[in-house]
Amino acid sequence: MSTLPHILITRPLGQHQPFIDQLQLMGLSVSHLPCLSIEPVPEARLQADPAEQHDSALFTSVNAVRQAHRQRPLPWPGLAVYAIGSATGQALQHHGQTIAILPDSPYDSESFLKQIGTRQAGRLLLVKGCGGRGVLAPGLRELGWQVDSANVYRRRLPDVPASRVAQVFEQQPPELISITSNECLQNLVTLCADHLPRIRQLPLVVNSVRATELARDLGFEQPPLVATPPGDQGQLACIRRWLQS
Q1: CA–CA distance from 76 to each of 91, 145, 161, 228 (Å)?
Q2: 66-99, pLDDT tens digit by residue?
Q3: β-strands 56-59, 80-83: how paired?
Q4: The pTM is what?
Q5: Strands 56-59 and 37-40, sheet pairing
Q6: Phi/psi of residue 117, each to 5°?
Q7: Would you say 116 and 143 are in contact if contact means Cβ atoms under 8 Å apart?
Q8: What is the rounded distance in angstroms from the CA atom of residue 120 to the CA atom of residue 106?
Q9: I want to staple 83 with a disulfide (CB 3.0 to 4.6 A). Which of 88, 131, 228, 235 is the partner?
Q10: Are 155 and 37 spatial neighbours (Cβ–Cβ below 8 Å)?
């Protein structure tokens, strides 16, 4: 059994390997238990040019960028394009899309609404996943924007065999768990129902204060480490501090 510090990451399949590579460079051993499944929504109907009916578009996540690009390749000319977070902005720029304004910390709905409040309202396409907090569209409408939503992906509880979950916690139990969203944390508790006393004792690294509140409500005993900024770089900084402590 490895004596390296061991971390469990919970990202969707296909979105885990670059983060694992960085953790291994830091001297960690890593297990992966996907606690979220990302599925496209074909009926989002992004084949039509968004600029025909909108003057702006807002992408709420990297997954929104990936799924929208598959339906209608970026860049989208003729639109002022916005991103909630820095990773989302980088994903857009990777596809050659110019960003109207750089996202502002702490990279959440509330900070974006403050930013966009200084701009003249128009007609905006909100590119997102199904569900969510439901803060952006009402907030934008209060600021005078006309908002249409394109739900380009949905989040699901993945089908993970109980034997795989048992393997994670019995062969090499993790010492730290990386969580990327509240839904991911809730799914971790669902998938690991037979191991809850053990995982509730473990520290978490999360992307938001809201996740720390959920962790407390779910019975986790240690206050989670909060990534600043949210995302890979903030999580890696948290994990470095955890290693040093």
Answers
A1: 14, 20, 41, 30
A2: 999 999 999 999 999 999 988 899 999 999 999 9
A3: parallel
A4: 0.85
A5: unpaired
A6: -65, -20
A7: yes
A8: 23
A9: 88
A10: yes
DSSP one-letter string for 117-133: TTSPP-EEEEEEESS--
Helix axes 17-25, 232-244, angle to 10 degrees: 30
Tokens at 83, concatenated: 């991103």
Q: Which of 200, 192, 235, 238 is nearest to 217 (CA)?
A: 200
Please give the DSSP secondary-structure letter assigned to residue 194.
Answer: G
Query: d(Cα 31, Cα 9) in Å, to the nearest integer?
Result: 6
| In the predicted structure, residue 1 carries a pLDDT above the cut 50 | no
Confidence class for position 228, pLDDT limits 50, 70, 90: confident
Q: Which amino acid appears at position 203 of this protein?
A: P
**Segment holding 186, helix H or strand E:** helix 182-191
SS3 44: helix
Q: What angle do CA 26, 30, 33 make, to 5 degrees?
A: 145
Q: Are 67 and 40 in contact (CB under 8 A)?
A: yes
